[in-house]
Structures are given as C-alpha cells and as structure tokens.
Specification:
By secondary structure, this protein is of the alpha/beta class. The chain has 15 helices and 13 strands. The N and C termini lie far apart (48 Å). The structure holds (2S)-2-hydroxybutanedioic acid. The site of (2S)-2-hydroxybutanedioic acid (LMR) has 6 residues, from loops.
Length: 395
Amino acid sequence: MFSQLQQPPADPILGLSIAFKSDSNPNKIDLGAGIYKDADGQTPVLACVKTAEKFRTENETSKTYLGSTGSALFNTRMTDLLLGEHTVIAENRIRTISTPGGTGALRIAGEFINRCTPGATIWVSNPTWANHQGVFQAAGLKIETYPYYDYANKSLDFNGMIEVLKKVPKGDAVLLHACCHNPSGMDLSKEQWQQVAEIAKETGFTPVIDIAYQGFGLGLEEDAYGPRLMANTVDEMIICSSCSKNFALYRERIGACSIIGKDTASADIIHAVLQRVVRVNYSMPPAHGAALVETILGSPELTGQWHEELKVMRDRISGMRSLVVAKLIENGVTRDFSFITRQNGMFSFLGLSPEQIERLKQEFGIYIVNSSRISVAAISPSNVDYLTQSIAKVL
Ligand code: LMR
C-alpha cells in the first residue's frame, strides 16, 4: 500500500525552516515562518506565561478530560477578548470552542461549513496564507479567490475585491483576514470593513474571519474592529483565532473557533455540531495553552503585563519596518520600498523575483518564502545591514 506514495512538495513555509536549520552560513537569516524574534534573534516565553505556568503547576488538581470543546473558562475569555462587550454575547448567539492552534480552528470551521453544505465554496484573498487553501480543501470545500493585493502598485486592490465579493453566491463562505493580512500586510480601513460587511449582508455569503495576529497590528481593540463590525451586521459568521503569536504559545497549539448563529436555539445546535466535528477528528483539544491564557486573562495584573509584552513585540516590528527601508536607501537601493512602512503585522511582500529569492538563499543564506513574503519580525539591528546589503546585491 505505502509503495504507491509519491513524495509531496515541501511546505512553502515550514519547508523553508527545515532548509534554514541545515544551512551552515554563519550569517544566515530566516525570514520565512511568522515567528516573533527579539533583538537577539530569540523567541522567548513571555513573562506573563511563565507566571501562569507556575500557577498551573502549583494549583492543577486533575488531568481528567475536559471534553471536545475544551475549557469553558478559556472559551468565555477568548470570546470577550475577540468581541469585547458585544450584542452577540448579550443575545447568547455565539459559541466558542478551544482548538489546536489557529490552524485547528480553520480546519474545524471548514468541516463545520462542509456539514452545513457539503462541498461548499470558500473564497479566499489572492494572495492568502499558503496553508488556507490546503486546510479548506482537506475539509472538503472548493476554493475560489477574490482580488486583494495590487502587486504592481504595492497596495490594496479594494475595487477589485468588492467587485468580486458582490457576485459571491448566497451560501458560499468568504475568508477575511481581521488584521495583519498574511502575506501582504495590507489591511482594510474601517470604511472598507463597513463596505465589505454591507456586501456580506446583501449577498448573504457567510464571513469566516481569520484573526491570528490580534495585537500585532494597531492594538488589541483596533485589530478586532472588522470581526466586531461584521458581527453587528450579519446573522451568521465564523471567527478563527490563535494564541500562537500574541501569547507566543506557538508549540502549545491553542486557538479558538467561534461561531455566531441567528439566535440562541441555532447557537445551541451549532455547538452540538461543533462537538461532533471535533469528536470524530481529534476528540479533544490540548489543555495547557488554554489554561495559561485563561489564567492571564482572568488576572488584571497578568493581563496588564501581557498588554505591555505584546506592545513591545508590536513596536519592535514596526521599528524594524522603518529601519529596513532606511537601510535599503543607505545601501544604494533606488527602488521604492517605502510601502513596507505602510503595512501591519509580521509580513510584507518585497516584490523580488523567484531568481532573486533563490540567489538570496544560495549565496547569502537569507530564507524568504517563494512569494517574496518576508517576516519583518525576524529582522533586528544586528542582521539588518547584512540583509539590506544582500538585497542591494541581488537587485
Ligand atoms: C506563517 O504564516 O508563517 C505562520 O502562520 C506559520 C505557519 O504555520 O505557516
């Protein structure tokens, strides 16, 4: 049976990390996966997480099963973090479950949609996170794309986007990035969110909002503007969130899938279906990350510390955006890269050719995703000179 298998292509993002690890170049830089690194190139455990872990070790009394939806306290606190004081909470129309990371949330969302309408279509932005299509296809959905990024002008193709969204048939789903669009870093303005929400209401498509970087764009509240507005506008929607980046809990695999129904009775059915989808998939989510997040969000002191630690990460990335643009100019690059400072979150598209990306890898040990997406979060004052000098050479 196994001899029939063919070697699959390397994952465009994770495959790069594997190649990076085996590169012996002492100056190598990994701008591939979206992982926050500090000025020393480390991805430390947050201090608030360390405290929550200590609390857990000292106070945990049992490791018995929590059930398919995970910790109820985590689910409530994540819902509050996402939506604040929102009418869908007051109206008891939202159900949140813990999932293994944001990817787990997306997969569960895909399977849930497939239960509602087998083989339904989900529209994703062009471009989108390299794993979105694979996750939704694996859940049985068909994929279509809507325009999003204007490669030539390094800006948002909003007119192209809404022209296509207006024609999405009722019953299809549309995936939107709440903030820090992955891979382009270009986000919708408040006015643009308003227009997209109105189109969703008019056409009747189901919005699926991926919020994997809450707090990495403009701030925790600002980054949740889109999902909050959408939840005010439509009757039904899905939100997939992640604690990988904002709590730096990457390997703990904790995220959430929140689904809003048109009333309490439908929300209860949604919840029962979600439990079934999880039960036949991985049965139950891991508990550790959820326990840490619920402890942090349940303590004003730890929450305050988390906000500060998150701000440090956000500010460092935004500082690197300005620095990299200044250093490119300093190294004689005449092409305009100022767009990097107008984007949010971890990512930016450099607009380099596949040949230039290959040269950066082979000659300089600089690893960039083939689409020319870089993780700005991996740039630091100690590698920015080498990076920008190398880019200047390949240009
Ligand atoms: C990324 O886009 O680099 C991150 O979300 C990591 C991943 O799983 O791909």
